[in-house]
Structure formats: C-alpha cells, structure tokens
Amino acid sequence: MNSLLMPLSHDVPAPIGPATLRPYDTDRIDLREVLGVFLRRAWLALGVGAVLFAAVLAFVLHMTPKYTATGSVLIDPHRQNLTQAEPAQGGMPPDTSAVDTQVEVLRSHALAEAVVRQLKLYNDPEFNRDLAGRSGNIAAPSPRVVGKVTEMVQARTQVRRAGLTYVIQVDFTSRSPNMAATIANGFMNQYISRQLEGKSAAIDQANRDLGPNIERLRADAEAAQAKVQEYKTANNLLSAQGATMAEQEVSTLNDQIARAKADAAEKQARLDSALDQIRVGGGGQDVGAALGSDTVHELRKREADLSTRLAHLRTDFKSDYPDVQRTQNELNDVHAQIQLEINRVISNLRAEASAAAQRERSLLGSRGQAQGGLVQNNRAQVGLFGLQQRADAAKLIYEGYLTRAKEVAAASGLQQPDALINSAAAAPLHSSSPNMRLGLAAAAILAMIGGAVSVLVAEMWDSSLRSRQDVERNLGLPLAGALPDFRSVSGRKSRGTKPEDYIVKHPLSSFAESFRNVRAFMMLSAPDRRPRTIVITSSVPREGKSLTSLCLARTLAMAGSRVILVDCDMRQRGVTKLMGGAELGLADVVEGTATLAEAMTPDTKSSAWILPSASATSPAHHDLLGRPEADEVFQELASSFDYVILDAPPVLGVADARMLAARADQVLYVVRWNKTPRRAAQSGLDILNECGAPTIGVLLSQVNVQKQAAYGYGDSSDYFQYFRNYYIANA
Fold first, then answer.
1. What is the DSSP letter of 583?
2. 695-703 β-sheet, strand order
3. Across 291-295, 401-405, 482-486, 705-709, which has the greatest mean pLDDT?
4. Is the CB of residue 484 less than 8 Å from the CB of residue 516?
5. All domains of the chain, ordered by start, with CATH?
6. pTM of whole model > 0.85?
7. What pLDDT, on a 0 to 100 scale, did the predictor assign at position 91?
C-alpha cells in the first residue's frame, strides 16, 4: 500500500506497472497480519463470544443437579476356600487380564439387568420415562421396558480400574444421592452374589456329574482286578511277598546249590589232602582228620609210652628178651590200630565227599525243573502285564474321582468369592453435575472458539480490499496511492472544514501529502512523456472518486500545473455538486448551446479550472460522451491544459466510463478501503482491460490510517504515529 504520510520516492523508486509488482509469499504466515485480523473483528468476536458464553452458562445453570456415588471392589487373586490348606490353584491368576475381565463383567448387560430387577428401577420415573406423569407400580414389566431401563442404567454407570491395582471403582449418577449410592452398592452386591452363585452352581453340577461316574469307575476297577486274579490262577502266577512261587523256588534252590557246592568242595578238598599225604609216604600219620580223632590221640599217646618203654628195655636187655618182645608186640599192635583208625577216617572222608557231590547234583536237577516252570511263568507275565496296567489305571481313575468327590462335598457351602467390597458407596453430599468450574471453563473455551470462528468466517466472507498486498495480489495492479479518510488524519482543526478545502489550507498535512504521492506516481508511471488526459473512475458509486478528482486537481494546480477538472458523470454530477452547482456545463458545450469558455469556471481555492457536467435543471442526456463533438472538446482541453482530469461515472453501471477510459492517457481506478467487494473491483478492471484502457494503478480511498496501522497490514501506514507530529508541525 502506498504511503499516506511519506514521500512517494520511498515506496516507488522506479516506474511502476504490472511488470514491477513484488511477489508475495503466500505460504508464510504473517503473525502481525493475523493479529490485525482479530483486532479488526474484535467487536464481532466479543459479541459472538459473549452470546455463546451466556448461552452455555444459562444452559449449565438450568441443568438438573446430578449426584455420583462411588464404591470399589477389591479383586483378590490369592483368596482361598476354607476347606483348602494350601492357596487355591483354581482361582484367578494375578495378572492384568483377569482384572480387566472382571471390569467387563461389572459392565455387562446381564449384571445391570439383575440390579434393575432387584431394585425394581422400572417403577422409578427417573429411569422409566413411560411413567412420567403416571402413578402406580408395574408388577410384571415387559422385556422391552426392562431392556430400556437397563440401557439407561448402564449409560449412567461407569466402571473403571484404579490404575494397575486390583481395585475396581463403580460410579453411578442419579438425581438422588441416596439412589446413586443404592444402585452403586447394588452393582457390587450383585457382582459378589453372582460369583458365589456361579461357584455353588459349579459345585452342584460337579456333584451331579461325579456320582454316577464314581459307581461306574468302581465297577470297572473291580472287574479289571478280577481278570488279573483269574489270569494268575490259570497260569500258576500265585505270588507271595511280591514274587511268584516259581521265582521263590528257583531263588531257594540257588541258595541251597551254592551251599551244597561249597560243602562238596570243602569235603573233596579234605579227601584230596588226606590222599596226598598218604601218597607222599606219611602213612596217614599227619592226616588232619586223623589228628583231630580222640581215638588216634589216645593210641598215639600209648604209642609214645610204649616206644619210650621199649627204648629203655633195649638199653638194658637184648632184643630176644621177653619183655622187649612183648613191648615190641604191643607197640606193633598200637601201630596197627592207628593205621586202622586212619583208614577209617579216610573212608569216612571219601563217603562225605561223595554224599556232598550227590546232593549238589540233586539240587542242580531240581533247579533245572524249577527254571522250566519259571520260563512258562515269564511268558504268562506278558499277558498279565497288560491286564495289570488296565486294572491299575482303572483303580487310579476311580481313586482320583473319589478324592475329588470328597473335596467337592467338603467345599459345598464353604465357597468364598474372588472379590470383596473394598469400599461401599455412600450418598454424596455435593452434586457432580453441573460442574460450575467446568461449565465456566467450557463456556469460556466455546466463547473463544466461537469468536475465533466468527472472525475467520467474517474474514473469509469479507472480500474487501485493505492493503497493498490485497490490491496487487487480487487485482494485478500496483497501488497508486492510499487516500486517508479525512476525519482520521485531520484532527480537531478540521471541524467545519471540507476535505477539498483542507488540502488547500494545510498543504503540508498528511492528507495533502497523500495526493502528492499520487501525483508522483503518475509522473513516474510515464517518465518519457507527461500524461494529458487522466480518467478517474471506480467500479460502483460512492467510492469517493469525485472528491478524489477535485483534490488531485487542486494538488496539481498548487504544484504549478495548468489543470482542468471535467465532471463527466451526467447522472450524479459529483464534482458539480461539490462546487455548489453550475448554470452551464459539458453537456451544453457538446450540444453547442454554449462555448467552452462560457462553461468553464475557475476554482476559487486554487488555480485549477472546473468544467461542470450540466446545470441541475438540464435534461438528462444519453450517449452524450460518445459523440464526435465530445472528442473535439476533450482534444481542445488537452491542447490548452497540462492535465485534463475526467471524473468518470462507475464502470459497472454506465457505459460512458468505457469510452472515456479508452480515450485517456492514464486511468486511475478508485476502490474504497474496506468497503468495495473484491469481485466488483475485478469485474470493473476486466471491463477496462477489454476496452484497452491504460489503467496504471489503484487508489484506495477513505483509508482509516489509525485502524490500518493498528491492524498491522505491513504498509507504510503502520508508521503513522512516527510522522503525526511531523505533518502537524508543518501543516
């Protein structure tokens, strides 16, 4: 946007045209521009926000108070039954999935329906809307009624797990605090009761199932054991102390054979030793068996005595001495007796060895016979093994069922639930809804959102032009100048002064400077030649083009140029009305009823000249400016003046503007700031382009510089406060 307050050379350093437009980054978000949007729509946002805040607050205040009662259930996965010495293995595992499962059980439709039926909530109008305005109780509610009430109860029930603990919280909301506590406790009590009922039902079913099965299993076990005994009897597999008769017989014979072999070996060794002694020439005198004989001992004692006696006798007597012979004979007789006794001992040893060997052979034969029977028993054991396995299995199954039946019978009536009520719900003292703090917060948030949305919608709906970026981005033309609203820059000195007169009285004011910027723009737009004919037009009426034309004419005249302002709007006569009316005008000159010199009037405030359109009493003319006479008038004016400013009618409404724009050297297009619709401005420019008009730029008229700066459009108007004193001091 062109500066209203600074010299044009700061904004337009080079000839300006469509080819020199600055590219704008449409992807970059300008925070100042966003803030400006909200500042511009502040009253709308505040109004919408206030309405929404009041509506939400009124809604919250008119809500029926509701109370929420909270209770908790503790899930105990290690809880055991009274009949078990060890912790229960069949209870819930201590994992998170088990607790989550119980949460879903508490949320189930079946549990809610049980609470509804227990407390007869279908007779409460709060839950059964069909009872509104009616009295009496429903004795037998239909499934549809119970289902609707159950759904409403479920909707008001909240079951949640407390973190990662084994505690489940049960909340219920009702209009009555006592009813809220009653229903919350009803949920927990029903949950505990249904657990006990489920366990009792399981035990009863187990008793019903175990009874017939135990009798059948007992009969099967007895029949299998009977078959085992019959098979043993038939195959001589009778046993004692865990072994069969054949096995015991073989074992006994083995022991006897071992002892018999040892005895036979011992006796044979004694016999062999005795025979060896005899063979070596000992005469059996040193046979161990003989040495141990008492008879041999006595005989040897006598032999020793006789030998001693004989030795003495032979010392004293000759060998033929009778005593010597007699003693010798006795000694020989003793020797004979000893030999006989030794022979008897050897014979006895031989008999004992023979008997021991015979006994060993007999035992070996008996063992052979017993082993044959054992082989037959082992073959029979193969069949017995299968029968015994079936009998043992049947017995084991029977004993297992019998043990389980005893446990079930003992556990009946002593079951405990896997959960307990940790905290019973109490009637709340304060309502849970409406929550005034939450309501106020929601109202404030909704008000802010509504205000922001209203600003966004209004901004998107508003298609007016406000800044240099808007003009160059949407219209494709440079901004020729921003003409401030007279009231926003003139201050208290301007009271009672017209804008067209203020520009003459205060030539150094910011208002006058804005028109000098337009003059500079016009000169820099055509540096090679001075434009003669300048058309000022707009898209729709009331854009301020007539005032703009008069002020621009006076600005050019005050700069020393010869200027004439021609009012070409035959219908509205904007410039003519600003000058106070006229007796003659352009229409009279074109019609030939007056000369150009007669129709022109000097501007009393400056050296400019004015050519009115026509007098107020002149009839309306159509297609007046399309005549050749009009061209002649404009050519004569162009040859006599430096600038011929044509105040043309709006482009969209009157065809005269097209013809005037096509004849002009330059066309300035006036758009009212924050007022003219973008589409209207674009349509007017399209028409000018179609007729080949040399449109050099757009003028934003009636700009409120204070708002423009406050809204932060990024134009030079943002710096209005810096130059306020500068302009006032030199005005």
1. S
2. 479-484, 695-703, 666-672, 533-538, 643-647, 563-567, 609-611, 601-602
3. 482-486
4. no
5. 8-21+476-729 (3.40.50.300), 243-411 (1.10.287)
6. no
7. 47
